[in-house]
Amino acid sequence: MAAIAHGIRTVGVVGSGQMGLGIAYVAALRARVPVLLYDRSEVQLKKGLAFMDKLLDKDVAKGKISSEDAKAARDRVSVISSEQGLSGMRDTDMVIEAASENLSLKEAIFKELSQKVSPDAILATNTSSISITKIAASTIQEGQTASSAEGSKSALRVVGLHFFNPVPKLVELISALQTSQDTLDRARAFAVACGKEVTTSQDVPGFVSNALLMPFINEAIMCLEKGVATRDDIDKTLKLGMNHPMGPLQLGDIGLDTCLAIQQTLYTGTGDSKYRPSVLLERMVDAQWLGKKSGKGFYDYDA
Ligand SMILES: NC(=O)c1ccc[n+]([C@@H]2O[C@H](COP(=O)([O-])OP(=O)(O)OC[C@H]3O[C@@H](n4cnc5c(N)ncnc54)[C@H](O)[C@@H]3O)[C@@H](O)[C@H]2O)c1
Questions:
Q1: Closest residue to atom 18 of ligand 1, CA basis
Q2: How large is the angle between the packed helices 279-286 and 209-225, nearest 10 degrees?
């Protein structure tokens, strides 16, 4: 079967946290497309770019890429200023949103993107759990309806493109009820160009990945909360006993606020008590102990 062209000449990435940065990295390095990166926090943008430089240097040092390729990738990434905001995404063929895991925030971003970006551009979200169908509906402007020509055209270009971060090989592709086949095909082709394998999932809370992973992490936190075992023994059990590359508490430390937001979406989205977030997870987020990104979680990290 002939490969489908993604037709993306420039990609926009909204959010330069762990995920936005990772997506910008693979898009610039692997898919070799110009990337416009935007974050509402200038501090976070600077931090993100510094982290990208570090990742590129590391890959060069390990002999994974040449210094020429690293330089070319870095040169493909430019930043959109806060004055320009999402208007700076005007000339992109695809925008991938990787802002914080919050429905109303994502709805506001998609509403604005659908006004500012060309009607033919794909609007993808990297959400871990939120309904892609709801996000797609937020692109329908006032005066339009879900069945009007403009309203349906706006929503059919929205898709879930769930990257994990620069290292894992997978992207989960999720169709909203409204997503067109052309949007799905092009989004998949772009993920492949980024060097990823693609699986597909229905638009259910947590899709496949987080419907399985988050209850697992949550259950490990409950073990710690109940004093069943120590942090180190919980992680060691899964690492050595089940050959997991990381223990569940170590994995949760990638972002405890994101874990909690996903767990809450699973709980409210299904009404199933098995998804109730652990009290310890809630309290750690209350304390701003978010894991790696804040320097403290189940483990301590250097600044
Ligand atoms: N961390 C993971 O392992 C992981 C994996 C897959 C998917 N995700 C999903 O990716 C998304 C981002 O997660 P993350 O871990 O990178 O979070 P993060 O907290 O590291 O980064 C989020 C970034 O979004 C920015 N932001 C918030 N509101 C914004 C706005 N209105 N406009 C522009 N930027 C805005 C913040 O300043 C921050 O830099 C979430 O939806 C999350 O569920 C996370």
A1: 17
A2: 90
Q: How far is the CA of 208 from the centre of ligand 1 (A)?
A: 20
pLDDT single digits (tens) 21-39: 999 999 999 999 999 999 9
Q: Which long-range contacts (CB under 8 A, 24 or more apart) does 163-166 make?
A: 163/19, 163/22, 163/23, 163/26, 163/96, 163/98, 163/126, 163/191, 163/194, 163/196, 164/209, 165/18, 165/19, 165/22, 165/254, 166/22, 166/25, 166/26, 166/55
pLDDT of residue 303: 63
Q: How far does residue 45's CA lie from ligand 1's centre (Å)?
A: 12
Percent of all residues in the chain with a pLDDT value above 90, rounded to a whole number: 91
Nearest CA to ligand 1 atom 32: 40
Taking the CA of residue 20 as reference, the ligand 1 atom at the shortest distance is: 16
Per-residue pLDDT reduced to its tens digit, 86-116: 999 999 999 999 999 999 999 999 999 999 9
Model confidence, pTM:
0.92
297 vs 233: CA distance, rounded Å: 16
